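The records we work with from here on pair a chain with its fold. Taken together, the tokens spell out the fold as the letters spell out the chain. To see the layout at work, look at the sequence and tokens printed below.
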Amino acid sequence: MDTPQAIPRTVLCVDDEPSILSAMKRLFRSSGHRVLTAESGAAALALLETETVDLIISDMRMPMMTGAELLSQVRTRWPEITRLLLTGYADIDSTISAINEGQIHRYIAKPWKDSEILGTVAEAFERKALVAEKNRLEALSIRQNEELKALNATLEQKVEERTAELAQLNDRLKKNYFNSIKSFSNLIELRGGQLVGHSRKVADLARRTAKTLNLDDTQAHEVFIAALMHDIGKIGLSDTTLSKPVSKMTPEESARYRLHPIFGEQALMGLDDMQPVAALIRSHHERHDGRGFPDGLKDEAIPVGARILAVVDAYEDMQAGHLITECLSPHEARTMISRGKGTQFDPAVIDAFLSLFAKPPPPPTHRPLKLRTDELKPGMVLAVDFLSAEGVLLLAADHVLTDELIARIKTFERRGGQPILLAIKQPQERS
């Protein structure tokens, strides 16, 4: 607590009687206060021009300027100074008027008691300290509120910036994850023959079929990823086995071939996020009638994504000559697929799949730009997969180009000795 004993104060005593002033000086000097004196109102005002005063005690009756008049001027010019009035009982009415008009803190009647004056002054200083502390706390509160507002505004901006950064990072991770899957699925196609381009064709048709069946986005995405990787288990098969149609395989080769869905599932065992995809890979050779492999599942026991893969994979295999020696035309393959409705394939999936060919797919809204490598800029987005001359996937569609990637593409072009044109999305298509 800010008290007179803790912090020395300056007291100005004003009276036209020197004896009164001497008594005041002795009284306040013993209390530790600094004491100033003036013998008139004019002298007091002149002193206040040069001195810092905390409290003024003025006699009521003085020539030229009364104590009430002096304190009224003090209130106007130095309102922070506490004002006390010494008065006799004969001046009580004018004293009350002075208190009301000059907002005098208190009056002290003559003759006074030393303890009364000291107590009054101590109480005035304590009140002054409380008011000062209140004002300090209010100012501090206002300043802290403003700082908090500024901090909140900055924090909101920082949160928005960080959220945007995380969103960009998350989007980049998703694209890298997706591109990694496409590259991973491309490994099996390096074996050549019937496998080149097979997974990408199956993935495109599987995704469109899933959308026709009104699967949600998560399920449709899982079907698409599973389609890209559904033959990954064939990496363990020999070139001899892979080169033969299924109908021409020996019993030993057929037994080994029927294990590739299991191998594909096992390859993904360590990836938590890929377990729904792994389940589809394991079951994509199951049959609607329960005569498929590896688990003999039937009807609804087969995951819907695997039922979609079974149809689309068989359709592409028929055209590639993978099931029988003859390579069927797309129309012939669809005819064969429709004959398996209700036995080998889920009828609902067959209907959704065949509906894809009822009318041609809508043309793209914007034609992609065909750009030379020297026209590529960072931030551009591939419109379609970038394949090598051998059909190997080099970069997946939607890949965002960077300076480093453009440099690698130019190096690939230079080593190959053939000019490269890349399909790039129009600016309005880029997100």
